[in-house]
Known about the structure:
The structure holds 2 protein chains of 2 kinds. Chain A is mainly α. Chain A has 9 helices and no strands. Chain B has a single domain, classed as P-loop containing nucleotide triphosphate hydrolases (Rossmann fold), CATH 3.40.50. In chain B, the strands form 2 sheets. In chain B, strands 6-7-8-3-9-10 form a 6-stranded mixed β-sheet, sandwiched between helices.
Amino acid sequence: MLRVIFYPFNVLIGVLEGVGRYVELMFSMFRSFFSWHRYFSLMIDQMYHIGVLSIPIVVLTSLFSGMVTSVQAAYQFESGFVPNWFVGSIVGESVLMELAPMMTALVMTGRIGATIAAEIGTMRVSEQIDALESLSFDPLSFLILPRIIAAAVMFPVLVVIADCFGIIGGLVAAINSMDVSSQEFIRGLRNWFRPWDAWFGLIKGLFFGVAITSIACYQGYFTTGGATGVGKSTTATVVISCVSIVFLDYILAALLL
Amino acid sequence: MIEVKDLYKSFDKKNILSNINFTVSNGQSIAIVGKSGAGKSILLKCLIGLIQPDRGSIYIDNKLINTMNFQQLQKIRSKIGMVFQFGALFDSMTVGENISLALKKLTKLNEDEIQQRVKNSLASVDMIDTESLMPAELSGGMKKRVGIARAIAIKPLYLFYDEPTTGLDPIMTDSINRLILKFQNTEDVTSVIVTHEMRTVYDVSDRVLLLHEGKIQYDGSPETINNVDDPVVQQFITGNSILV
């Protein structure tokens, strides 16, 4: 009976402990910051893995997101009260402010978050992290810092790519599903465009990138229990990252808009 | 010299190590033996600072390591080569990169000298021309030997081995034992070997500590352990499961 009563408190204590360890890990990551030149090549390597190799999936998802937005806008415009060229405005604003950063973050949670958690988790359970420490390396600076910096740099780049392809997708779909010319679509796009909206999407991309990689690194770094533990860390990374992304999305919107 | 005083460690209220006291002199080769779960590997990880003890002191070269910050620990670790149970090779790197990684950080050798050191280290464990292989391409015994090559490449003062012969066939076990003995004699290192193989104890150590339920049950030479009138010690060395 007592266990049932105390269960929510134990869960809360567990969550707070986790948050504490996460914050401590993030601060400890900078303890070897002045040896950054040793880890620079690792950062470039991670930028390639996180950024360059993710371009095809980001292009694909953003292209279809833009197309869906365009088709659904066209469906809403059937009443005839809204001019068709408005579809450019809707696609542009949706893609720049929400779809590009959000879709990129969700796709990257699966592609990068899960990979990082599994990689670092496997290194933990196979004593590779202990081996790094025994060889006088700082595993936080060696494994975590390059990944987080690489994500902070590459996520906004991926968001820009997603912006471009989302709008291209919207344009193609608008031309095909509505009686809208490319000039009209671009007119709508430019009519409502505010540079801050694009910056807002990039800022979101930066925060999402840091959140996904830091959560994945944290989960991987504290993995215990062999292969099962690696599986649990990977699942936890995807779940916690997705929740954090929507939470951050709201917080950033409330703060920045 | 390694000095351990009143060391205690527990996990989830379960005592793993209790009141551990011993000293390892320079050049000595000490085997830490005991049943699985006796706390041998935990003790070894405490010695290198990978696990913080709950209580007690560990001195290496007269420096208290369990109160050191990360940078101070890094300096001490640069004197220690650690051989892990399953090699713990970095699986995204080749054999050569695994060995050269620490050399690039801990030494001022140029690239040619590092490559030469890698070759020499691999040659000393009979793994010539394997620099370009990935760890996934190696057998268990080969991984252990590369792990030893990685540990000796930095020319450490101390070599810690975590179950170096576990899971190997008798011939490979003999080969690893000979390697340990070779480094003990030629490099003048201080060795701490965690094992549960009595053959390794007899072959390579000049002192043996037997851990039982987190405490030191026996501390003496391998020559006299057979004559000890202690059922726990006798059970371990004879491998008889029904003695105690």
